[in-house]
Amino acid sequence: MVDYHAANNQSLYSAGGQQTYMEQENDWDRDLLLDPAWEKQQRKTFTAWCNSHLRKAGTQIENIEEDFRDGLKLMLLLEVISGERLPKPERGKMRVHKINNVNKALDFIASKGVKLVSIGAEETSAKEGLLLWCQRKTAPYKNVNVQNFHISWKDGLAFNALIHRHRPELIDYDKLRKDDPVTNLNNAFEVAERYLDIPKMLDAEDIVGTLRPDEKAIMTYVSCFYHAFSGAQKAETAANRICKVLAVNQENEHLMEDYEKLASDLLEWIRRTIPWLENRAPEKTMTEMQQKLEDFRDYRRVHKPPKVQEKCQLEINFNTLQTKLRLSNRPAFMPSEGRMVSDINGAWHKLEGAEKGYEEWLLNEIRRLERLDHLAEKFRQKAAIHESWTDGKEAMLTQKDYETASLSEIKALLKKHEAFESDLAAHQDRVEQIAAIAQELNELDYYDSPSVNARCQKICEQWDALGSLTQNRRESLERTEKQLESIDELYLEYAKRAAPFNNWMEGAMEDLQDMFIVHNIEEIQGLITAHDQFKSTLPEANKEREAIQAIQAEVQKIAQYNGIKLAGNNPYTTITPQSIDKKWEKVQQLVPQRDQALQEELARQQSNDHPRRQFANQANMIGPWIQNKMAEIGRISIEMNGTLEDQLTHLRQYEQSIIEYKPNIDQQEGNHQLIQEALIFDNKYTAYTMEHLRVGWEQLLTTIARTINEIENQILTRDAKGISQEQLHEYRTSFNHFDKKRTGIMDSDDFQALLISTGNSLGDAEFARIMGIVDPNNSGAVTFQAFIDFMSRETTDTDTADQVIASFKILAGDKNYITAEELRRELPPDQAEYCIARMAPYTGPDAVPGALDYMSFSTALYGESDL
């Protein structure tokens, strides 16, 4: 026997000389034509092949010459193969009838361009195509090397490899052995007949028992495998299309779920935070309010910044999702009610409004409590002074000393009472101040107002009582005045001058000890100026003191000169020269103390000027920097030079440079905290507040992130729609030309002019349709992203619901419905279950139990019906 595999790689030699492989092939063909066994094998193969088709019409043949002689079954075979109706056959038994039927069959074959003789280029091409298909399908299998349609199939492995490639569950290929060709061939033929509806056309022995199996028989047999699996190839293609569409849908649904969760979490955080910021329940003490301020700082620095990023990322995710939906020809995503980007922006706006109001309220409350503490201390000081002054006054006014007094004593008592009235009138202002302070504490909701009110009421009632008692005593003294002589005018002069001076000194001591609170250098300088003015009056006051002391000295001199024995102190006043000297010394002590306190406060305010300037210098640098960066981003987003990738790289580098500026913001937050801790509420060195800088910084980060997202979406659009860089540049140039305000957004009139410039013929209805696409929210503004989405949508093709329906129809075997079993067989498990869970039951007239409606499912994927 000739070794075919050796002959395939080298020349064959005969005893008479050199012979090529092709010559050997031709010799084999001539030998086979003369071999009866070969003819028998040909008949067997062709008969089996014919029966594989006739079986579909419910018949078969046994003998080719006899059963095709009358032409009836030959015409039936051609109808089954072609799927067309042939002319009506003649049913007569005469030879002419049979010949006419055969001629009709031959005419039909000829009408299809089939040549019944020779082997032309068409047949050669078909053979080469079938051979190439076999080689591709069997390439991964060991011990299989398909080079022809005879020797390559002799060991049976190629037949088994074809079946295993398409239906791996039918063949355990690893158990097959190359040295057992009969078992291999029988296994392949039996599996093909049982599971693939391919009749057994050859016996294993017919192939193994011959040196070179018949090529046409093998080709006929292999062609049956090709036709059996060609439907699987179509199903595979259809399944791939469906898998691709479903993968897009599943990814979009995942993005929608992520958006819904992120939006829900962010809205819930805003919902929880706003009541806290809107809570205006004041605390009673400065310490408690300072803790509230510290909690607010934690919120601004720790809790809010991640939420700012989440909000920005949410908008980016929403825009990316909408772009992907547009690119895949899917309907736009509509979030759940209350979770639109506009809803989140509205909630965020409300949050920031509450936040701004909260900070202002905190600072106002701290100022109020500071003012309250100052007023309360001032009330206590004045009340204590007044209560000390009134101590014993009621007993003095109710005594009956005038009943037994002499005339001189009565006159003295009357003068003394007049001096007391003058003193009482001088104290009226203090009582009014005490009442005014108490009223202001009430109006400012001082927490200890009840005790203040009680003390004030007691002082006022006592004051009214003193007024009544004073009036009663005066009336009593005046009734006896006619019986008394006047008292020495000198005493009276002393008393009259000593009382105002004594009141002046008491007022001076009170003022010198009065607490003060200032917030800037100007206020403390005003207090220093007032104090300097007070000190300038001291020389005149000292002259008045010396004059009063001179009166007392004159009294002593006169009494001594006249030998008069004075009965104690001046009867007209309790103010002694010693008490005046003591209070004057006290004033002299308090003046430098007041000087020192004012200078210390001046130094403190001057030291506060440093953090003011420090904050202002940094703010005056950061504020313009943010404004410049915002302007640069706007310019970059409009100009967009270079490729999209270049622009994206440039923007990300630009974003990184912005992020690297963050330490300056953090440093300014520290400066701001120092100012607040020092209770500095104004800053004349800058117009920027920390709130301005925070909002500007957040807007800057959001703007650069949105700009980067726009470029990413443009890249998605370009790659998905096949838009060239030149087209994108042309779109950008046209858009910039009509973007008169250079904002990246244009109104409807400018957009209409832009469309006309791109060659669109617009009527009112067509323009309204386009505006509905590019501006679905009727905002009256069109962005560049919306413009390129529209242009790419109008100029490129996308997969459609009809294409998906056609793919499902292939998987369903041309039925109007599909079953769960078919979906699980043709699609990956997760996508099969995805379809089964969402497909509605099929209710057509040809429905069977478990039938699913793939048509409504496909249209729902593209928003043409409800899923």
What does this structure look like?
The chain is mostly helical and 867 residues long. It has 32 helices and six strands. It has a two-stranded antiparallel ribbon. It has a two-stranded antiparallel ribbon with strand order 3-4. A hairpin with a 2-residue loop joins strand 1 and strand 2. The longest helix has 64 residues.
How many alpha or pi helices?
A: 32
Strand content range: under 5%
Q: Helix proportion of residues, in percent?
A: over 70%
E-strand count: 6
Low-confidence segments: 1-30, 117-121, 483-487
SSE topology:
Blueprint: H1 4-7, E1 12-14, E2 17-19, H2 21-33, H3 36-54, H4 64-67, H5 72-82, H6 95-111, H7 121-138, H8 157-166, H9 181-195, H10 204-208, H11 215-278, H12 286-327, H13 341-390, H14 393-398, H15 407-426, H16 428-443, H17 449-481, H18 489-513, H19 521-536, H20 538-562, H21 577-639, H22 644-659, H23 662-677, H24 690-721, H25 725-738, E3 745-747, H26 748-757, H27 764-774, E4 781-783, H28 784-795, H29 801-811, H30 820-826, H31 829-838, E5 840-841, E6 852-853, H32 854-861
Antiparallel strand pairs: 1-2, 3-4, 5-6
Quick recap of the structure?
The chain is mostly helical and 867 residues long.
